[in-house]
Amino acid sequence: MADHVYKSIELTGSSSTGIEDAVHKAIARASKTVRNMRWLEVASIRGHLDKGVVAHWQVTVKIGFTLEA
Amino acid sequence: MADHVYKSIELTGSSSTGIEDAVHKAIARASKTVRNMRWLEVASIRGHLDKGVVAHWQVTVKIGFTLEA
Amino acid sequence: MADHVYKSIELTGSSSTGIEDAVHKAIARASKTVRNMRWLEVASIRGHLDKGVVAHWQVTVKIGFTLEA
Amino acid sequence: MADHVYKSIELTGSSSTGIEDAVHKAIARASKTVRNMRWLEVASIRGHLDKGVVAHWQVTVKIGFTLEA
Amino acid sequence: MADHVYKSIELTGSSSTGIEDAVHKAIARASKTVRNMRWLEVASIRGHLDKGVVAHWQVTVKIGFTLEA
Amino acid sequence: MADHVYKSIELTGSSSTGIEDAVHKAIARASKTVRNMRWLEVASIRGHLDKGVVAHWQVTVKIGFTLEA
Amino acid sequence: MADHVYKSIELTGSSSTGIEDAVHKAIARASKTVRNMRWLEVASIRGHLDKGVVAHWQVTVKIGFTLEA
Amino acid sequence: MADHVYKSIELTGSSSTGIEDAVHKAIARASKTVRNMRWLEVASIRGHLDKGVVAHWQVTVKIGFTLEA
Amino acid sequence: MADHVYKSIELTGSSSTGIEDAVHKAIARASKTVRNMRWLEVASIRGHLDKGVVAHWQVTVKIGFTLEA
Amino acid sequence: MADHVYKSIELTGSSSTGIEDAVHKAIARASKTVRNMRWLEVASIRGHLDKGVVAHWQVTVKIGFTLEA
Amino acid sequence: MADHVYKSIELTGSSSTGIEDAVHKAIARASKTVRNMRWLEVASIRGHLDKGVVAHWQVTVKIGFTLEA
Amino acid sequence: MADHVYKSIELTGSSSTGIEDAVHKAIARASKTVRNMRWLEVASIRGHLDKGVVAHWQVTVKIGFTLEA
Rounded mean pLDDT of K42-53? Predict the structure, then answer.
């Protein structure tokens, strides 16, 4: 691991189901173009309210991945 | 949206079930007196412990709503 | 409550299931050696990514418990 | 001033013109129902983007006012 | 406690005597209109200086109270 | 909105005119390569001083845009 | 001092009297089991409210002490 | 630049016109006694409210300048 | 007030008596060389521990004063 | 400089040698694909521990570079 | 890793040589009583000044280690 | 120590060698005009990049010194 360099990007996933699912949505989208993802960190948890209920959750995550040498 | 003014209030919901449910409890209570709620942001996630387990979750949220003109 | 002194410790639980379960794991481990746990506060929510999915969640909590007099 | 108690509320004003104008909008709306406003503090400056330009600015302010005795 | 929803408000009390007294002033004012206050948290401690001494302390507190169901 | 994933990037615009103009410069540059920009958040406001005046403002913004599915 | 290693722990003391007294309570309890305490830093000042007054103050402190070599 | 040492000071400028002008006021005052000012960073944006409008803006800036060798 | 520029400095006062007294010590020292002090803000509250008790409190304050035109 | 727009990215470099070397590793990797790098800011310093020693340092840096017009 | 629970402790190491060495001192002391240390994070870097030079560095680190099941 | 008042100033030292050396540069410059320096705290670590390498480190430190009575 000592020779690696990582890059972090910040994505926001949204889901009408819950917090973990919003994160899964962000990760799933990232995995289309980013390889070697290693970790995530939740930066903020927000939600959109409509008609007095949580219409969907919006979770912002930092995602770290290995840059190939 | 450019003509709107929003107000934010801070509520703490609690639930023995989980984090999202504690938020739903706070939103449900707010919807009794507040109209036009638009967003929420989780400010802190705490819990009350009893007999070595999480007796209930306490989630503090900021809730934003449109002020009528 | 006015006469009590509390101590806080910081643990990280991990779970392949979700955020609440990672907290439950940390609390369950703490309850083996710590009595009179009273509250928790989530300090960070992270995750380990493997093969493009969240392999497990890592949730760091502060746990407060009463010190016996 | 030593005998006063102040309350703070948090509003978000929006404007297509600029940052100060968004604050003025929030203050103008507050002045309809709140008397004795004394200070403001900018908490965040955001904007809504549409077609590649700033469609309007959204500035969140804390506003402090004197509570009558 | 699991069924309760709490609201937080932010007040600033002032006192020429000291920090605790400024908090007491804020709580006393709040108790005129708010029932079921449960906790406070000090957000900032400031002071007004006049003629080279602290003329009065200004302590901002968040106050949490139970919303009736 | 529930199905979208957003990405945030961080740019710094500069302007000899003022804060909003520095943001406009950053957004204008981003719009050359990024589509579907949705929001911005000001992260810091700095300035370069020369001969005792503000030679130009440097405003750092986070810009969020929709990732196409 | 250059050869020392210090450990920090976090305690919360409570007192119906005031902020300093809550700190003294935390330090007094710590001194039963910890030797060579060197410094403290106040991390938060909270209070429990009952019947519209501060029933007791809850002050969280970090306490640093020398680890014996 | 590698041989320089900089000092930072913190000033608050006020203006009835707007945020940039409050900064210009602070810089203009500093330039009477400080040479070689190099950068500024906005630390807070506040305002004084009077009769329901922003009577003047109060902007606190950190100002960095080169110390002569 | 709109024409004033303020400067902030940071001092730490210490006292064996308590928090307010440590602030008074810092203000008293500042008043020897600084005129027109207007406000203070507590930045941190620390203490030196000796023989298991608080030997003295160390309170760091920002102090703002008017710069003469 | 007034006409430039900068972008910031976040990388983590690792090194078994020390903090500066971990930064150099991150910069060296970035220089393969990024031109016109202008500044860095250290965001966090972490380390991986193995067999009771620091196996390697992990330093996260924000790197700013000029976007070509 | 999914089944592990980690504990974090906070230590301050000091060294007349430099920042990394102060961390090594803290880790070396911890390794006398703690097994399975996994990571560290630098929380603050301070120094003691004597006769106009840095007499020693004081680096505070959080150290995480695996709790045995 | 209980009778002392300390002042903090903020300097930025720069060095092409490394982080500690940038701090030493700042301290050396301060020692020309400030007596009785007692501590430092690193506030930020930045660097200037030129031709794809760290041309010099820029480390901002708070320096505390005793004010003579």
Answer: 97
The answer to whether G46 contacts E37, with C-beta atoms less than 8 Å apart, is no
Asked if B60 is an interface residue toward chain A (Cβ–Cβ < 8 A), one would say: no
**Among C6, A23, A50, A28, residue whose Cα is nearest residue B19:** A23
Q: Which residue has tokens 């929006």?
A: D14
Token pair recorded at residue E58: 């200004």
Going by the DSSP 8-state scheme, the letter that residue C13 receives in this structure is E
Tell me whether I68 touches chain H (CB under 8 Å). no
Average pLDDT of the residues of chain K: 95
- Cα-based distances in Å from B62 to A48, D11, D12, I55, L50: 12, 12, 13, 41, 44
Which residues fall within 8 angstroms of residue C63, CB to CB, at 6 or more apart? B49, C8, C9, C10, C11, C26, C27, C30, C34, C37, C39, C40
pLDDT averaged per 10 residues in sequence order, chain F, 69 residues: 85 97 98 97 98 97 94
L31: phi then psi, degrees, rounded to nearest 5? -70, -10
Distances (CA, A) of F39 to F6, F11, G17, J7: 10, 13, 49, 17
List of chain L residues whose C-beta atoms are within 8 Å of the C-beta of residue J42: 44-46
The residue in chain F having the minimum alpha-carbon distance to the alpha carbon of residue H21 is F18
Q: How confident is the model at residue K27 (pLDDT cuts 50, 70, 90)?
A: very high
Q: Which residue has the tokens 């991990």?
A: C14
pTM over 0.90: yes
G52: chain E residues, CB-CB within 8 Å: 27-28, 31, 37
Helix (H) or strand (E) holding H68: none
pLDDT tens digits along A22-48: 999 999 999 999 999 999 999 999 999
Taking the mean position of all CA atoms in its chain, how far away is CA D49? 21
One-letter amino acid for residue L27 of the chain? I
Contact at 8 Å (CB) between C26 and K8?
no
- J8 in reach of chain F (CB within 8 A): yes
Full 3-state SS string of L4-69: CEEEEEEEEEEECCCHHHHHHHHHHHHCCCCCCEEEEEEEEEEEEEECCEEEEEEEEEEEEEEECC
Q: Chain B contact for D31, CB < 8 A?
A: no
Q: Two tokens at A16?
A: 């009408």
Q: What is the pLDDT of residue G46?
A: 98
L58, β-bridge pairs: L14, L46
User: Does the CB of A32 have a partner CB in chain B at under 8 Å?
Assistant: no
Structure token pair of residue B53: 């387990």
CB contact under 8 A, F52 and H28: yes
Q: How many CB atoms lie within 10 A of CB C28?
A: 13
Task: Judge contact between J3 and A55, C-beta under 8 A.
Answer: no
Helix (H, G, I), strand (E, B) or coil at I26: helix
Task: Say if C and L touch: at least 3 Cβ pairs within 8 Å.
Answer: no
Which parts of chain L register pLDDT below 70? 1-2
Q: d(Cα I42, Cα E45) in Å, to the nearest integer?
A: 6
The distance from CA I8 to its chain's CA centroid, rounded to whole angstroms, is 11
3 state DSSP class of E12:
strand
Confirm or reject contact between J28 and chain L (CB < 8 A). Answer: yes
Q: How many CB atoms lie within 10 A of CB D35?
A: 10
Q: Which residues are CB-contacts of B43 (< 8 A; sequence separation ≥ 6)?
A: B10, B60, B61, B62
What does each C-alpha distance from D63 to G30, G40, I14, K2, L59 come to in angstroms?
Answer: 42, 34, 34, 46, 36
